[in-house]
Design goal:
This protein has about 525 residues and is of the alpha+beta class. The chain is about 30% helix and about 20% strand. The chain contains 17 helices and 24 strands. The strands form seven sheets. Strands 12, 13, 14, 17, 18, 19 and 20 form a seven-stranded mixed β-sheet that branches. About 55% of the residues are buried.
Length: about 525
């Protein structure tokens, strides 16, 4: 997925998305959780969300055709799906369900939602995921009307989707919030306020969101009495509050005010291997984005020097958790190819740029400075203001200034929502970012860095890379797809288009009383969660 996305995860997520479950048992049927997150909700608009904090809210308060579970997917609103022999037409039959205002959720709600997202006027950053659906690209390029998108409603409860080409990962996309239905009446009623607060939304999922004003640091999810599968929903309420340090969450855990937390380096060492300890792979990579609109960072030699000067092994030791030093952009463990990890297909010589080599870093650095006619430079590193993000920024500042003579790094740490906004508007030089796959395929990472992708904030461009990514999306031959994508990623890494730092795995401590939760690439599904007695 989803994600995926513009979020901070791994140990960063441990400080940003700390799980919790309350011990309140004052009444026989009471099922309450208290959940701590380290970043604000950015929006509840499925067309515009880009981060795991917002997506977790949507996954629990809304529902699409399918829902991600521990092993693959389970039906959401789709009761069946038929695929044509040529793989270009999908026919979904929908169950009867309701929006929280009592009106039926119908196939037209999917049609409206998808058209709204691909409409260039919406400026949806995830609109590129619709590429491959008939006319999606042409619509986004302003060449065809929104009404020509390959989706139509047949009656109230049948949805037909037409593709331009086979998409090996199409069904995987259907559990991602950008493909959820939206109630047209709510969008029109609330206008510019739609998705900016709890009360300016329509919900059709297991829970209803309450109390988010758009900027406050606490809100709730309460059980939806009109949800089609409400008998499977055991929790009465989930209360969310924003906390930005693992130490704060651990104090709450110790006082039995929460029942689970993401662990920082010290807590990981303390609890690893003990009862209640979980290591949760999230399919994410933490990396540096380098804004190539800055003349200094347009130099590939400067970018390579920055990469080679980073001691990733030391950094992950400083941060702790279960993170691993990264040598690829695509996360390890995301996709298997004939029994081997996809990342093993990437050129070994490209990967060498992501090993700590201080002498070689200085060579590239001096070459880059000479090309630019400079003896040094100052660069700013933008990070979020969570505890682990700040530690990462401080460590990178020290490593880069120590190993690259004449370089001064300033670090700007801002709230998560602000970092996203600055990143999206290109107001950064270096940005500490991460991406969590929206689904289990390398294309979820690699498509972001094509020349025309709205999420290519660093403005790196390579025509051969674009060609290979396009080719990988135009076939169902998995061997050919993986070859194209691994060649493309080798080009990206050889030019230091981004600088991968570490692969993210989340370390958690969860009390045995908390059961039934699902964590899928750092997005939490509480539909079947409960507190045991």
């Amino acid at each position: 997925m989803s994600s995926r996305r513009f979020a901070l995860t791994g140990v960063a997520l441990a400080a940003l998305a700390l799980s919790a479950c309350s011990q309140k048992q004052s009444t026989k049927n009471e099922q309450d959780l208290n959940w701590s997150v380290g970043g604000e909700i950015t929006t509840m608009d499925p067309s515009k969300a880009t981060d795991v904090v917002s997506f977790t809210q949507m996954i629990n308060s809304m529902e699409g055709l399918y829902r991600n579970v521990k092993q693959g997917q389970e039906p959401g609103l789709a009761t069946s799906a038929k695929v044509s022999k040529d793989g270009l037409t999908y026919v979904f039959k929908l169950r009867k369900s309701k929006w929280n205002d009592g009106t039926p959720v119908t196939a037209k709600d999917f049609v409206y939602s998808w058209r709204r997202t691909v409409n260039p006027k919406t400026e949806a950053e995830y609109a590129y995921l619709f590429s491959g659906i008939k006319n999606a690209d042409a619509i986004q390029n302003g060449k065809k009307p929104v009404s020509s998108l390959g989706i139509k409603a047949v009656g109230k409860y049948q949805l037909v989707v037409t593709l331009e080409k086979r998409m090996a990962y199409f069904k995987d996309l259907m559990a991602f919030p950008v493909f959820f239905p939206q109630e047209e009446r709510a969008v029109r009623k609330y206008g510019d306020r739609y998705g900016t607060a709890s009360k300016y939304m329509a919900y059709n999922g297991p829970f209803l969101q309450k109390g988010w004003s758009g900027s406050n640091l606490s809100w709730k999810l309460v059980k939806n009495p009109d949800y089609w599968d409400k008998d499977q929903v055991k929790l009465d309420q989930i209360s969310f509050t924003v906390n930005k340090t693992a130490s704060t969450a651990y104090n709450l855990y110790e006082s039995k005010k929460i029942d689970a937390l993401g662990l920082d380096s010290n807590l990981t060492k303390q609890f690893k291997g003990k009862s209640g300890y979980y290591s949760l792979a999230n399919g994410g990579t933490y990396y540096l984005e380098l804004n190539e609109k800055n003349p200094n960072l347009a130099s590939s030699n400067i970018r390579k020097a920055i990469s080679l000067a980073i001691n990733r092994e030391d950094l992950v030791r400083i941060l702790g958790g279960n993170n691993q030093a990264a040598s690829t952009y695509t996360a390890k463990g995301l996709t298997s190819v004939k029994g081997q990890d996809y990342t093993s297909l990437i050129s070994p010589s490209a990967k060498k740029l992501y090993k700590y080599q201080p002498s070689l870093a200085k060579e590239y650095w001096q070459k880059g400075l000479s090309e630019l006619g400079k003896s040094g430079m100052t660069l700013n590193l933008l990070t979020s203001d969570s505890d682990s993000a700040k530690k990462t920024g401080e460590a990178l500042q020290s490593m880069l200034e120590t190993k690259l003579p004449g370089l001064k790094i300033t670090v700007t740490s801002v709230p998560f929502k602000t970092r996203l906004a600055r990143r999206e508007s290109g107001k950064f030089q270096l940005c500490g970012s991460d991406w969590i796959a929206d689904f289990g395929d390398p294309i979820s990472f690699l498509e972001l860095l094509t020349s025309s992708n709205a999420s290519n904030y660093g403005s790196w461009k390579n025509s051969r890379y674009d060609q290979l990514i396009a080719a990988s999306k135009d076939t169902n031959d998995q061997a050919a797809r993986m070859k194209d994508m691994s060649e493309a990623e080798s080009i990206l890494l050889s030019d230091a288009g981004v600088v991968p730092i570490y692969y993210e795995d989340d370390a958690w401590l969860i009390r045995p009383s908390v059961k039934g939760w699902v964590c899928n690439r750092s997005e939490w599904n509480f539909k079947k969660a409960y507190v045991s007695k």
